[in-house]
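To whoever is covering the structure queue this week,

Two jobs came back overnight. Logging them here so there's a record in the thread.

Job A:
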Amino acid sequence: MTERPDFCRSKLCIIGGRGRMGRWFEKLFRQAGISTILTDLCQAPPCQELVASCDVVMLAVPAPAVEEVMKAIGAFIRPDALVMDISSVKKRPIDFMLKYSQSEVIGAHPLFGPTANSLAGQLFFLCPARTEKWVYALKKFLEGYGSEVVEIDPDQHNRLMACFQTLRHIMLAALGRTVVRMGYHSGSQTSLAGVWFNQLLAILHTQSQQPGDLYADIAIENPHSCETRKVFQESLRSLVDSIANRDRDSLIEAMEEANNCFLPN
């Protein structure tokens, strides 16, 4: 039987460690007593000795950068070590980690941002790809800090995120662009917007705390975004056409169809 490692006793390297999520995980790991080394994309590629000395290599880099990083370091990661990414898109990064290394491979997606106070109550997706021992150790560590860990197929993950992330991002971006172009000013008009609209604006404000390139990468790199975008585009066009044509029945029908998402399966 393969001996299971203790994640807290591992030597860990975060590549992309100067980014916001890299710094977040550095703080978590150091608080857990894990020996943690940081390196960043703006620095020279991690040296052979550094990568080879680590038990866990975490890629805290944008999804489009995973292949380049793995080309540079993959051959130096030990077969008994773990390489994992934390990007919001899973299939392609996993394929690159498998291709350029002989190590254990797990795709991970923390469904929260760097403003989270802790792992407690946070959803954490894991996509085990090539692993015998590290998935248990990683899952035990995450659950020990209160995270809800969900093991999921990479393609299923991407399909869900095309709806739960990309759709949300583009809806809120469209809302923001529309109200700005309509002349809305939060300082003087917030009190006139009402509770519901201000709740939408509060969600948009939360989204704005992350850089736009993150949302662009999530949308472009997810192969299921196109399907979601088409359905959303068709739905919006139908609603707009109903208003333009003063088609009250079609508009009511669309509103009632939207309510079906709250019905039990």
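Job B:
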Amino acid sequence: MNRMQTARRFMTRFGTAAGLLAYARLATAKRLHGSGDHLDLRIPVSARPVRVRAHTADIDVFWQVFVAGEYDIPVDFVPEVIVDAGAHVGYASLYFAHRFPQARIIAIEPAPANAELLRHNLNGNARVRIVESALWSSAATLMIANPGADSWSFQVRENAGTAPGVSTVTMPEILRQVGRIDILKLDVEGAELELLTGDLEWLRQVRMLIVELHERYAPGCTARLNEVMQRYGFEHVLEQGENVVFARQDAGVGALE
């Protein structure tokens, strides 16, 4: 895609003036290299400027969520509870909050630097609750296994006791608080395989699953997901961008709202 085509994508999503400004500022963010450099972008989905760390994976995630529209997934029911697991710096949570203004959102992120920016980007949004933990199959103490990786690629593993601990939260714990999850978005860098082990009865309280699979980190996760989805009454709906979408057979999936 050339520069003109890219700029047009921004203008289509945000309007001419806001789109051109966001395009120009995101291009500037790619050129900056200083540690701690960031830019704030005003876009229609957020009441306050959205922060992007310069020369980081934030730029790619911003593109995927807000410009490429990877979460523009057909839904014809009204979601009341959305869980954004692997919330990174909050772009998907902002998108869901704008698209589904009646929904409560739980944004889960284990990496401290990401969680700090997540809190900044979602500050003032009373419908979003931030949980600085890793979504896991059981209570445990974890660690960031690859702290030098890009910010969207952090993986967690059991803590051997030599690194700062990362707390966990489980799906049953979340469901005890909310009762039912209408949309569960999983982008957890391979931990999806861990989540699909043990007692999976919590899946009966999930209406739609949007998951990015990481076969390179967790070999076998694709086959395991397909088997579990069939067992618990989910249908494969579509694939969009890097996401695979499943919905329970009684969930309404149709035209975009």
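Note for Job B: The longest strand covers residues 206-212.

Please reply-all if you pick these up so we don't duplicate work.
Q.
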